[in-house]
TrEMBL record:
GO terms for biological process: cellular response to oxidative stress; hydrogen peroxide catabolic process; response to reactive oxygen species. It comes from the Eukaryota. Binds 2 calcium ions per subunit. Binds 1 heme b (iron(II)-protoporphyrin IX) group per subunit. Residues 57-270 form the Plant heme peroxidase family profile domain. It comes from Exidia glandulosa HHB12029. This is Peroxidase.
Length: 362
């Protein structure tokens, strides 16, 4: 047993060792590393001017573009420089690719930032800041200082929802990701909606789960429910029947939820919010570093806040659905009967609204 004075001394030593933040030259922000002052200011600009302080459409789009930019990378051939901002810098080329349809509006928002802070940072740094606004999301480290892109990524580096699973697994493996890591990344579809798979106005912004503003496990649970309807004009290429009016299901998500290489990780994510968040944190960080070495970058993670906790501690069946609606995917572990059903009457899932930005649309 240690004596109390010894513990007090030890604690004091630890407290003394912890580096203190000092005031930045702008007189507003404080950082431990003075080189991160610039990024503290960039964070506030993202939050106030682009995200309007909420985890809504502009955060969703930024997380999506972070994937589309980074995945332009290959371990085996020359497919682009990874997370290098090429999707903005060489937007004339990359935004014309089918898989990037609908991403141009966030590029319009980002361009003024990209010019101020560098293309890559505007994307990967912005995604880390955006996720900090989504309840339940893990803290994504902010590594800054990447050089800008020197070339466009070629077409066909971004998977499409109508691609067969073998093609998607092969593309992800080519960029260095296993099927399990793909599932970890797909936690991002918990804050997601569609506009391009079914362009019908009634499903513009139709979300992939019933809680698109919270980084929770719902998308993994809800993609396991029996599909019963197409919410808009479907079926469209890359679309599958969804279980709830207003909700949209990608064919690829349906397939991964039931595929023998991915279904058990999928179920694990449905059942554990903390496992899902921690695996996403590791794999999204790996994605954001594609094409770069972490040791050559400056770590300004200190300016990224921890998101608030998820609104519900674990997944639930949306009103009207029960365990009987689960289509068992994982062959080695049955989906448990312990999750409860949300109280009340089943109501259509509302679409995610398009957001403006503080300085207005162009
Ligand atoms: C198999 C791989 C994937 C496929 C086939 C896929 C496909 C799609 C599609 C078709 C959309 C709807 C786009 C629209 O119509 O506007 C979408 C949205 C989205 N995806 Fe993926 N995705 C994949 C992986 C990922 C990954 C790895 C991430 C991030 C790490 C990601 C993040 C998002 C986000 C955040 C949205 C919502 C965008 C918004 O609401 O504006 N996706 N995805």
């Amino acid at each position: 047993m240690f004596a109390a004075p010894f513990i007090a001394l030890a604690l004091a030593a630890v407290a003394k060792a912890a580096p203190a933040a000092s005031l930045c030259p702008d007189g507003v922000h404080s950082t431990i590393n003075p080189q991160c002052c610039f990024w503290a200011n960039a964070r506030d600009r993202f939050i106030n001017e682009i995200f309007l302080n909420v985890c809504q459409e502009n955060v969703h789009s930024l997380v999506r573009i972070a994937f589309h930019d980074a995945i332009g990378f290959s371990l085996n051939s020359d497919k682009g420089g990874g997370a290098d901002g090429s999707i903005i810098q060489f937007g004339d080329t990359e935004l014309a690719f089918h898989a990037n349809e609908g991403i141009d509006f966030i590029v319009d928002f980002l361009e003024p930032f990209a010019n101020d802070v560098g293309m890559t940072f505007a994307i990967q740094f912005g995604a880390a800041v955006g996720l900090s606004l989504c309840p339940g999301a893990p803290k994504i480290p902010a590594f800054v200082g990447r050089p800008n892109a020197t070339r466009a990524a070629p077409d066909k580096t971004v998977p499409e929802p109508f691609d067969d699973p073998t093609t998607i697994f092969a593309r992800m493996a080519d960029a260095g990701f296993t099927p399990t890591e793909l599932v970890h990344l797909l936690a991002s579809h918990t804050i997601a909606d569609q506009a391009g798979v079914d362009p019908e106005p009634s499903v513009l912004g139709a979300p992939f789960d019933s809680t698109p503003f919270s980084f929770d496990s719902q998308v993994f649970l809800e993609t396991l429910l029996v599909g019963t309807m197409f919410p808009g004009s479907g079926p469209n290429p890359g679309e599958e029947q969804s279980p709830l009016p207003g909700e949209f299901r990608l064919l690829s998500d349906k397939v991964f939820a039931r595929h023998n290489l991915t279904s058990c990780t999928w179920q694990e994510n449905a059942l554990s919010q903390s496992t899902m968040a921690s695996n996403f944190q590791t794999t999204f960080t790996k994605l954001s570093l594609l094409g770069h070495s972490q040791s050559s970058l400056l770590d300004c993670s200190e300016v990224i806040a921890q998101a608030p906790p998820a609104t519900a501690p674990k997944a639930f069946f949306p009103a009207g659905k029960t365990h009987a609606d689960i289509e068992q995917g994982c062959a080695t572990q049955l989906f448990p009967t312990t999750l409860s059903t949300q109280a009340g009457r089943a109501t259509p899932i509302p679409p995610v609204q398009v957001q403006d930005i503080a300085f207005g649309r162009k």
